[in-house]
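User: Structure with calcium ion, tokens only please.
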Amino acid sequence: AKQTGRSAIHFFTQELHNEIQRTRYLKTAMQQALRDHSFEVFLQPIVRCSDSRCVKAEALARWRLPEEGFISPAEFIPIAEDNQFIHELGHQVFTKVTQMLNQLTKSVDPDFQISINKSGAQFVQGSLPTHRLWPMAMKNLRLHNQNLVIEITESVLLDTAEEVNNRINHFQKAGFQFAIDDFGTGYSSFAYLARFPASFLKIDRQFIQQIHSDQQMQVLCEAMIAMAHKMDMEVVAEGVETNEQFKLLNSLGCDYCQGFYFSKPLAFHEFEDWLEKSAN
Ligand code: C2E
Ligand code: CA
Ligand code: CA
Ligand code: CA
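Assistant:
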């Protein structure tokens, strides 16, 4: 049936209304979840190409709502950022990660690394001084700062605010490593990349998913890998879903792969079971 202009507008305002309601609801629920420390942290394995061993993992925040189960961080992280909750949330994620590192560095490998996502808002002035808190917490737990990787996107590198740069430098001097996340999706600035000594370059999954169907994508991946290696970075391919993609990336010189082909993100006890199974 043909929609009149009036009912289209009605539909639109109704949608907008629902969205505002939803955001308001999530904001309130988030305050409670932070008080209860009920955000969870899942780990997704990162596998070394040369021997298929899992030597790293990415920490991903999870939020379980009573009526609807897990909701996506793509939905709740932006709300947390708009409401300054991202600082407390980020710190709770970090605390859980240190507990996991404490176990994994003992049971699996003293060099095991977990990476944590940090958005630009988490480096600005007025936010939690994590550049001071995190090194202290690591030291208290007798963890090495090298065991923690901070994932940032290119937009953070393009941020010229002095405070952002200072904090990043502070983390780097303390021995934390950095990974450039979602590489290739933003305004890739090679000049910034060359100046910023990241340890890892994570190629976004949009490239990986077309690596077989689109010859250009393979050429681009090959070029990104070569460039990263020239700049002394190691490469992590994101969103690897098939054995064919894994084999091809391995042949292109990629260092690490992450994706559903190996495992989806797992609760910590599931991750430990997965590690045990994959070691055999
Ligand atoms: P991201 O950092 O790019 O994380 C990778 C996302 O890709 C994760 O989604 C993961 O579940 C998904 N993924 C992994 N392998 C595959 C695959 O083979 N195929 C497909 N289709 N997807 C795959 P998730 O967990 O929903 O997280 C979404 C985003 O939310 C993350 O993107 C990250 O930007 C943000 N995020 C998650 N946790 C945190 C956090 O603690 N702090 C901050 N600041 N952001 C977070
Ligand atoms: Ca990430
Ligand atoms: Ca990513
Ligand atoms: Ca992302």
